[in-house]
Amino acid sequence: MIKKSTNWPVTVIIALCSLLILFPLYMTVAIALKNPEEMARSIFSLPTGLHFENFANAIKATNFFNALGNSAKITVTAVVFILLTNSMVAYAIARNMNKRFFKTLYFYFISAMFIPFQIIMLPVVKVTTDLHMNNIPGLIILYIVYGLAFNVFVYVGYIRSIPYELEEAATVDGASTWGTFWRIIFPLLAPVNATIGILACLSTWNDFMLPLILLGNQDSYTLPLVQYVFQGQFSTDFNLAFASYLLALSPMIVIYLFAQKWIIGGLTQGSIK
Amino acid sequence: MAKRQVAFYLMTIPALLLFFAFHTFPALQGIYYAFTNWDGFSNSFDYVGFKNFINIFKDENVLNSYLFTFKYAIATTVLINIISLLIALGLNAKIKAKNFFRGVYFLPNILSVLIVGFIFNYLFSNVFPVWGQKLGSDFLSQNILGNSDWAWIGIVIVAVWQGIAYNTILYLAGLQTIPHDLYEASNLDGASRWREFWSITFPLLASFFTINMVLAMKGGLMVFDQIIALTGGGPGRSTQSIALLIYTGGFQGGEFAYQSANAVIYFIVIVVISALQLKFLQKREMDL
């Protein structure tokens, strides 16, 4: 094994390019902490006064904690039910691929991955409004149901690699199909649950389109939707706008700072499988 | 035994019913409305046959939105894949603070596309022009989002800034599956780095390349959030994507049926492109 020393030219290039990623985020933090006079002197400089009142104003203007609560409620509930239900559906499919019903079901769910959301966007608003589902519970149900297309594909691939013998042993011991799934299969799905959980969490938390077309009542708006709705009021006050953006981005950034290794690891593990 | 089978059906049938009700049924409804003249709120409408489809092919706004969306999707797909592959190679090399930089490059992926768009919207209008003025360039001193010829470039920049994160991680995962021995062997044979890349690295990344190309292209064709945050489709209609046209026309323009027909065509286009891409790239994977 040849031990190579640090590759300094590549380190420098990677470091310089990472500034391109960090610059917009630096600007966001800097602008969120300044007041208009400081902005007029220099847009780029570090803030001198730390104007935390921008955050207080943004919290009041956008009813931040209400939107944060909505986003958290929607994301947590959707992710938990996606993991519990989608894996169960995939288990039934994976163990019965020799039967026509389950095989058809598999391709039925998977083919939905190719259907762009726009084709169902207009009618789904009509359907959900007719059923009085244009609210948070309705939104959560849609996330769980729409997750099936991609998640069944990933789960089935993984479950088929789990040997049958474990389940047979459980059956001999008298466990029901449900018991076998919950006690034996579901714990074995931990790595793929991590991948799907992270992906579902990111896409639900950051989703803009479904809340935009579905949520009727302003009290039920999510964090991204609130930024959109208040855009008109922000336009003259950039410091207030950026404080609000930073507040909306911060929960995910904080989670990422602590769980970065785990999040990236979870995503790459699932993608190689 | 029969009881086991019942359990498997109980596990799947509720999901099947819900999926049909909220995915397949609306899709079929969309196709049905495409053959009517419903505006989205009237109580009555008529069956009009293929009239909507014929009109769509004659509609300049639709044509423009397709041209913009394709231009945008191709540019972002190519740029995202080249840049993220280069960054992944860099992150896979022997560099200092590897985990820190990996964390930085992945960061944009966890951020809301809409809010990132709003932030860049401000940078384009108030920050980048300041640099342009310092450089003494009239072109760089303007807000390119306000220029109908160049606004699409601004949207591409934002999409690439955010899109490289996920693809970089996928490529990096791919690079780590390549055994070290291969490089040691090619070192002994005296192969150049360039040769090494094209003969070992790239062929062994083929399946990752396929996935990334298809994902980036599909994402590009469905662009919506970025446009809302950056240009709203303007100036004029120069950056109106297909998704945005269906949304605004269908919900606000009283063109529910007409935009449903547009969505049906859009669906066919996406399926055909995804299928062609998969076929072409997988054939390439085999040839390598």
TrEMBL record, chain B:
<keyword id="KW-1003">Cell membrane</keyword>
<dbReference type="Pfam" id="PF00528">
    <property type="entry name" value="BPD_transp_1"/>
</dbReference>
<feature type="transmembrane region" description="Helical">
    <location>
        <begin position="196"/>
        <end position="215"/>
    </location>
</feature>
<feature type="transmembrane region" description="Helical">
    <location>
        <begin position="263"/>
        <end position="281"/>
    </location>
</feature>
<keyword id="KW-0813">Transport</keyword>
<keyword id="KW-0812">Transmembrane</keyword>
<dbReference type="InterPro" id="IPR000515">
    <property type="entry name" value="MetI-like"/>
</dbReference>
<keyword id="KW-0472">Membrane</keyword>
<feature type="transmembrane region" description="Helical">
    <location>
        <begin position="72"/>
        <end position="91"/>
    </location>
</feature>
<dbReference type="InterPro" id="IPR035906">
    <property type="entry name" value="MetI-like_sf"/>
</dbReference>
<protein>
    <submittedName>
        <fullName>Sugar ABC transporter permease</fullName>
    </submittedName>
</protein>
<feature type="transmembrane region" description="Helical">
    <location>
        <begin position="7"/>
        <end position="35"/>
    </location>
</feature>
<feature type="transmembrane region" description="Helical">
    <location>
        <begin position="150"/>
        <end position="175"/>
    </location>
</feature>
<feature type="transmembrane region" description="Helical">
    <location>
        <begin position="103"/>
        <end position="124"/>
    </location>
</feature>
<comment type="similarity">
    <text>Belongs to the binding-protein-dependent transport system permease family.</text>
</comment>
<dbReference type="InterPro" id="IPR051393">
    <property type="entry name" value="ABC_transporter_permease"/>
</dbReference>
<feature type="domain" description="ABC transmembrane type-1">
    <location>
        <begin position="66"/>
        <end position="277"/>
    </location>
</feature>
<keyword id="KW-1133">Transmembrane helix</keyword>
